């Protein structure tokens, strides 16, 4: 998929977009590699290794990627994707992605809060020890009397 020098001469395009086209070509190569990797593993084998939340994340990322690629395809065909049903589909998927993120955050927060609360309570409780026991018996020690 690499552009040769002959291809550049045959197809003229504004030089200002050359860097964009080069970056786009590299991105396509990365997508191609990722797809090959994903396709090399059976979906059922992959899902067996994931918990339900991770499975949902994988499904959402997959469907979002597919719809995003369709968005790009529409744009290359001169169709405005903002006026196509794919826009609503991407918004719907984003809504579910946000819900999954909230669930993951709550799951993570509940674990952290429990430990943090335990430490907070433990550190907040004052226990006298040998060093500071004399302070509790003689609270006025070290204070000077005021003279009138």
Automatic annotation (TrEMBL):
Keywords: Cytoplasm, DNA-binding, Nucleus, RNA-binding, rRNA processing. Residues 131-141 have a biased composition (Basic and acidic residues). It is found in: Cytoplasm; Nucleus, Nucleolus. Transmembrane segments: none annotated. It holds the Pfam family Sas10_Utp3. GO terms for cellular component: cytoplasm; exosome (RNase complex); nucleolus; nucleoplasm; transcription repressor complex. Residues 128-148 are annotated as: Disordered. One of its GO terms (molecular function) is nuclear receptor binding. The keyword Secreted does not apply. The keyword RNA-binding applies. One of its GO terms (biological process) is maturation of 5.8S rRNA. Belongs to the C1D family. Plays a role in the recruitment of the exosome to pre-rRNA to mediate the 3'-5' end processing of the 5.8S rRNA. PANTHER family: NUCLEAR NUCLEIC ACID-BINDING PROTEIN C1D, SUN-COR STEROID HORMONE RECEPTOR CO-REPRESSOR. Monomer and homodimer. This is Nuclear nucleic acid-binding protein C1D. It comes from Serinus canaria (Island canary). The lineage of its organism: Eukaryota, Metazoa, Chordata, Craniata, Vertebrata.
């Amino acid at each position: 998929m690499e552009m040769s020098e002959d291809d550049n001469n045959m197809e003229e395009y504004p030089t200002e977009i050359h860097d964009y086209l080069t970056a786009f070509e590299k991105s396509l190569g990365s997508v191609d590699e990722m797809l090959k990797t994903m396709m090399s593993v059976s979906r059922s084998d992959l899902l067996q290794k994931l918990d339900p939340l991770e499975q949902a994340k994988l499904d959402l990322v997959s469907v979002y990627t597919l719809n995003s690629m369709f968005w790009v395809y529409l744009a290359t065909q001169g169709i405005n994707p903002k006026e196509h049903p794919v826009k609503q589909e991407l918004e719907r998927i984003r809504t579910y992605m946000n819900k999954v993120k909230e669930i993951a955050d709550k799951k993570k927060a509940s674990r952290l809060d429990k430990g943090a609360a335990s430490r907070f309570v433990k550190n907040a409780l004052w226990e006298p020890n040998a060093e500071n026991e004399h302070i509790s018996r003689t609270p006025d020690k070290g204070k000077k009397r005021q003279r009138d």
